[in-house]
Amino acid sequence: TNSNIVWVATNKGLYKSTDAGATWEKTFQNTVGDFRLKPGDPNTIYLVTQSSFHVSRDGGASWTQITQTFPPGAGRLVIGVSPANPSVVYVLVAGTINNNSPFLGLFRSDDSGATFRQTRNTTDIFERNQAWYNLCIAVSPTNVDEVYTGAINIWKSIDGGDSFVRLNNNDSDVSQAYTHVDIHTLKFFNNKLYTGTDGGFYETDDGGLSFTDYNNGLAVTQFYRMSIAKNNASKISGGSQDNSGFIYNDQEWNIYTSGDGMDYEINPVNSNEVYGFVQFGSVLFISTNSGQNLGGVSAPRDSNGNPISGEWITPLAISRDGEVYAGFDAVYKLSGNTWEKVSPTIGTDALDDLEIDPLNPQVM
After folding, report:
1. Cβ atoms of residues 197 and 210 within 8 Å
2. Tens digits of residue pLDDT in 340-351
3. Spatial CA neighbour of 82 closest among 140, 34, 155
């Protein structure tokens, strides 16, 4: 009702501006995980921290914590509201934020956040324990019982959250309902549902039966590491966040691997030979023909036969004479299809970086 009033949530609190951003007042003191204005009543604000729900009914001047007891271990909450019934508030609850954030339930209030009840759904709509990273909810503006949630994939309920069906599948990229995995936002505009994911931007106007892909021409991929072939600047390899590894060759970018592409290196002795890690160094992808064919080597193993985990971006380096090295708990050298440990264990953490002198491969 007043576009000069702007709200911003931060990890320092909730801020309000009444003069289009010229000045700001902090209205809530703690970290804000999510917030929504009540449809039709901009003086009522719903807010969640890591594990609690708060409501202001006077434009942020005062706040009341609702004594709703969410499940023990709640670590991230997100809120959904709808103009179809402004009195309804949904809170989607994930577990503790530490790479282990399971689905703990969907809660619904029918009295503007005064009380909540847990819906009957027990299906794991998160699928993996990474809701600390990607989690969202949206409610249809025309049907308050039509609820969409996003974590790995998008799920839909038509009975107020008591049951859900999965609209798409991260293991399939051929269905009409395909979107990229890791759903970070779901928003309705003009009765169309839009989603922002680790792989771009999609829209549905048929309730999720099909999604339109708006990513063609968007040069927005996040590259972790890149390598340029020695004496051949027209050949490039790089690993991208959740969008595979790529090789640029003959003036075209081609997908080389899948999943998260990490540190990628082109052999300086033979530019057709390309190496690239996935996350934590669990697999080293290898191509001897610029990505046309692909092989792989698993991570090195400890004395008990268990794979050794590197950093999220496990460092990879190739010497001027073509020897391939990687940093896990120590420096390893690739010998055929196995890793040979060539240094003592270095500290208690995995290596962050590994560089080799371009003139003297003995110096690392």
Report:
1. no
2. 999 999 888 999
3. 140
